[in-house]
Amino acid sequence: MSFGDWQLNADAGALTAASNGWKSVSETAQSARDGFSTASTNALGSWTGDSADSFDESSSSAIKDMDEASSIATRISSALVHASGAVKAAQGHLDNSWAKLSGIARVGPLFFPKDAAEEDRIEAERKVANEIRSSLGAELDGCSQELADAVGSWNDLASRSRSKSDGTDPFVKGLPADSDNVGITLSGDQAVVTAGKGDNNITVETDPATNQQIVTIDGVSYAIPPGYNLTIRGGGGNDTITVPEGSSVGFTLSGGAGDDRINGGGSGDRILGGVGNDEIKAGGGNDYVSGGSGNDYMDGQDGDDRMFGGSGRDTLYGLNGDDRLSGGDDQDYLEGGKGEDMLYGGSGNDVLSGGRGDDKIFGGAGDDVSYGGLGSDVAIGGGGADTSYDDSPAKGSSNEKDVTVEIPEDTPFVKVEGSKEFVERTEADLDMLRASPTGQRQLGSLQASHDLSALFGREKTLTISEYQQRNPDDYNSKASASPDGDHYKVKYLPTFDDFRGGPPVVVLQHELGHVHDFTYGTLRDEDYSGDATEDHGVKVAERQATGLPIDHDNDPNTPEVIDPKHPLQYTENGLRKEMGLPKRESYK
């Protein structure tokens, strides 16, 4: 075995394996292209009109993209093959040079020549080795440039194709324009119901006597004969669409433009939020969900769901099942929940939480923060300065900063009350806090207070339940915390997403901050009148829980600071800082 200058210590086999992987990508893309081309040609058939032209244009573009993907993957595979071959050849030449020194005494890479002739032989072969290395370096530089060019082309293709893959740019030419009236179209086995313009309330029920699907739009009911696959189009306006939870058939639900609320059924639904800040609960079944453009909240609930945030700051919860979540553009929050999930942050500084199960987390572009949660997780940050918090990262994880945390299984003193959906959503947030160093400190401090109180027969408890919203326009009326003796209550709205750039778990952290003050007797209940005039009139307690400076010593002549009795790690801004989210600069 060669040593020193004659040993590259390079893994040509790994380059070959990577080349084979990209070759497989190329073949898969070409196979998908061929299948899609055949299917789209069959779909067109004798179809004519604007919709057919739009479909043809969209499918042709997709075929072109798959051809390009196959071509780029082939370029990458070829560059890796070239690099592998160059490394193998160079090592072979180095081994031949090394063999010419076999008669000279040595220990490892250190030679002990007996005379000047042997010294000359060593120097001559060392020169040969350096020339081999120099030649290899130049060859690998060429491979590296080819890879960089190909990766750039791949990223450009991914960026162009994202709107197709996440459902934000479907082919829509030829679809009827929104009208003021309800429209119902029956064709083949498809029934399309268009609600029309305005803020519509749309529900679907099944008549058990006739098996007809009864679509009710703003109080007026329409009967759809049995056997039709139903598509609901909300159209323009802030629509609410609700289909039966126990349904055994899947629906296609499209919110259209506006801030829509869509509730899926019990089977595999296809749900498109469209333009606007949408709230989507997919329900049971293996659903496909696309938020479209806007800051969307999406909850997969039961089933193995595929969810795409699209453009905007989105919040995605997979929950039960083996889910695939993709944030898309901007700063997104992804929570896998239970199951073996795959999370893709996309572009932007994303926060990704695997939850329970063996998850795969890919941050993508941007400075991402990931939390593996319980289970053996793979976390790959991608581009940017990425941070991973995990208890047992699996082989293949790669981040700029890896932090090992011990994650407790649960927090026994916390009780969650409410519907099945609320309990599962809240448990996912608590799992995330237990995986976070800041969240652990918060919950650990409350657990310690509970354990101490139990020793004296005054066991402190905490119950979390769903907030019943009274004023949808008031950002500060979506969560609360209150004491009742030694029993503390937190209420919060789990769909309260994108709160000043933060996900719902940030709101929960804020309310737990109040509980911290209740249990340790550090609550400041007087009105704030300090330096931050925008918060005059709010309770000092709100700035404590937020993590903002207060008059901590009741001396207006000293600078305001974050309350020493309520340190940053027990606050909303403490969690925001850890997650890389925008700081909340004021309570109001």
Overview of the molecule:
The protein is α/β, with parallel strands linked by helices. The protein folds into 3 domains: 4-165, Ferritin, CATH 1.20.1260; 183-404, no CATH class; 414-579. It is 34% helix and 19% strand. The chain has 8 helices and 30 strands. The protein has helices spanning 12-44, 50-99, 116-165, 420-435, 437-455, 504-520, 540-546, 572-579; strands spanning 106-107, 110-111, 183-187, 190-194, 201-206, 213-217, 220-224, 229-233, 240-242, 252-254, 261-263, 270-272, 279-281, 288-290, 297-299, 306-308, 315-317, 324-326, 333-335, 342-344, 351-353, 360-362, 369-371, 378-380, 387-390, 401-404, 414-416, 461-466, 479-484, 487-492. Strands 7-6-5-9-11-13-15-17-19-21-23-25-26 form a 13-stranded mixed β-sheet, with helices on one face. An 11-stranded mixed β-sheet has the order 3-4-8-10-12-14-16-18-20-22-24, with no helix packed on it. It starts with 11 loop residues before the first helix and ends in a 9-residue tail after the last helix. The model has no long low-confidence stretch (mean pLDDT 90).
